Amino acid sequence: MDLKTEQKINDDLLRPLRHPSGWFYLLVAVLGTSLLMGVGSWLYQMSNGLVVAGLRWPVFWAVYITNFVFWIGISHAGKLISAILLLVNATWRRPVTRCAEVITVFALMIGALFPIIHLGRPWLFFWLIPYPSERQIWPNLRSPLAWDFFAISTYLTGSTLFLLLPIIPDCALMRDQMTGWRRRIYGVLALGWQGTTKQWHRLEAAMQVMAIAIVPVAVSVHTIVSFDFSMSPVPMWHSTVFGPYFVAGAIFSGIAALIVAMAVLRKALHLEEYLHPVHFQNLGKLLLLMSLLWGYFTFAERLTTWYGNAPAEMAVFWETQTGSYAPLFWTMVFCNFVIPFPILAIKRLRTITGCVIASSTIVAGMWLERFLIVVPSLARKNLPYTWSYYRPQPVEIMITIATFAAMVLLYTLFSKAVPIISIWELKVGGHAQPLLTAEEEEEQRALWRVRP
Amino acid sequence: MKAIYGLYSNPDSAQRAVNELRRQGVPDGSITVITSQPYEEYEFSRRYKQTWIFWIAAGGGALGLTGGLTLAYLTETLWPIVTGGMPIVAWWPNIIIMFELTMLGSILATVVSLMVTTELPTMRSHVYDAEVSQGKIMVAVEEPVDEDVAKLERTFRTSGIQEIKRVV
User: Fold this and answer.
1) Is residue B122 in some structural domain?
2) Which of B34, B45, B103, B112 to mutate to test the interface with A (most CBs of A within 10 A)?
3) Could you tell me which residues come within 8 angstroms of residue A347 by beta carbon, excluding any fewer than 6 positions away?
4) Residue-wise over A214-253: b if at least 16 C-beta within 10 A, else e?
5) Which domains does chain A have, with CATH numbers?
6) What pLDDT was estimated at residue A386?
7) Bigger pLDDT: A368 vs B161
8) Per-residue confidence (pLDDT) for residue A376, from 0 to 100
9) pLDDT at A286
10) Domain span holding position B72
11) Which residues of B fall within a CB distance of 8 Å from A3?
12) Distances from the Cα of B147 to the Cαs of B1, B143, B153, in angstroms?
């Protein structure tokens, strides 16, 4: 790669940081207003109690918990895609990884907020943290809710560090390429990075280790979120398939969100030279695989319940298949399978537009899936005299809209502060194969050896 | 003098400069190569390939595992309440706490060892040139002996460089 190309990459990827347009300020204003309305709704709920939300006996978990599961799920694609593709050395990952990792961090932050919003007295959220309070009571570590705290904290810490470490060299680059106050800020954020061979080696080794560590943590997080449900003897919650079902659903929705984000960034920041159709094609294939996997899990779960024919389970089953939740259920099936499957399976339709259409329906379908896991089981729980209906209330709807606005706002602000494509990683993509030592060459030969 | 350095427009000439400096007897420890991206395909970048970071991460994981085990055990025995018919010290759920803290320990140990070994963050002014960010490669000799400076300049020039800079 010659110096001219390197400078062009610098200029192209730093341009969005230098010149925010009028549209940027308008978008921030609109999203900020939505966010403020959400905060206002939350304050209203705090002052009037959870009664203003639609939560009443027996449905005490509803939209807030749906949002919690949904956002934690969305957070999965980023780290899994980034870490797995790094470990298998897939070179096409380079322009995609940071877009994906940012989704993880912000979605986790938003997801982790929902158990707190759901608390009747959110200012006591720190009771979730394991420490002996003045009441001399430790949290119960045998409860899935305590496991959530550990899993989400670990994942958020790991994901944030995994996102921030490769940003340090880009901050050093911005320190050198920017002027004025930006230069000073990026100078501080670069932490004194020089770019010595030792620093590069250590950074890449650390990224490898963290990629290895982050994959099982990501899987554990959504498995533990599924345990919030499957550890209870509630109809259609108490299922051994819930762990992998949740993880598959999380990756599914996460990849869909990533494709939508990439398409928007490509258009808005003019990144056509860096986010190519092949990236959408490859992610589209992955999305197709996940759609099939999701269909498989849904079928396995439904068939097992139907075949078992346990009365309590069947009450929930029929309520979602033909009862009051049936329109939502069949919309979910259309959004997650019927619509995306042909779009993603037929090569001619698997264009950028096709992938975005399929992904958008999947994001909506996966939110419905989370809702259908949480609510019907509580509304039709065991004893018929407790049965009830749940309708989301304006406070819940406003808070939900606000969190989507918060996600877009955080993403927009981030893309104006840090290059959304890792500059140094992109440049490494243009290099020849790494030079191997004699020992590494022997290892490589052994991998390709045909044994008699 | 703190350092003398040359900026190269491609990694091939930087590699030639490093080879030439070595031939002149400059020890590896005094040669610093600074780039805007890792060049794994060149020999000059291989000097620090060996690292303990994987073992340090494993050590951090072991520490996290011990912490998780201790936390779970102490919590359950300090406040012994039977819940859900489970034993006071319930190992199945404790595995989750232990697993998460193991991974957290491993991740934190990795980051701390990265920061320590790369001396980040630092306020000290190191040898650096902003032209590196434009893709140039800096080959520097730090703390050169005054009598060798002229010889080093000649070496830099023979490896195809126009401008040599000194940091005093």
Assistant:
1) no
2) B103
3) none
4) bbebbbbbbbbbbbbbbbeebbbbebeebbbbbbbbbbbb
5) 3-127+139-158+216-429 (1.20.1630.10)
6) 86
7) A368
8) 94
9) 92
10) 53-117
11) 9, 134-136
12) 11, 12, 11
Residue B67 makes CB contacts below 8 A (sequence gap 6+) with B101, B105
Low-confidence ranges of chain A (pLDDT < 70): 130, 132-136, 432-437, 450-452
The Cα–Cα gap between A298 and A291 comes to 10
How is residue A165 written in tokens?
């470490």
CB contact under 8 A, A202 and B37: no
Q: Model confidence over A296-346: pLDDT tens digits?
A: 999 999 999 999 999 999 999 999 999 999 999 999 999 999 999 999 999
Dig out the tokens for B135 from the structure.
């893709």
The pLDDT assigned to A243 comes to 94
User: The tokens of B24 are what?
Assistant: 């002149």
Write down the pTM of the prediction: 0.91
CATH number of the domain encompassing residue B21: 3.30.70.120
Which candidate, A201, A221, A214, A113, places its Cα nearest to that of A160? A214
Name the residue type at position A372.
L
- Mutation target for A interface from B89, B91, B111: give the one with most A CBs within 10 A: B111
Beta bridge partners, B165, equal: B5
Side chain identity, residue A298? T
Q: Supply A146's token pair.
A: 């305590």
What chain B residue is nearest to A434 in terms of C-alpha separation? B41
Tens digit of each residue's pLDDT (9 = 90 or more) over A136-195: 677 788 889 889 999 999 999 999 999 999 999 999 999 999 988 999 999 999 999 999
| Helix ranges, B7-129 (H) | 11-23, 53-78, 91-117
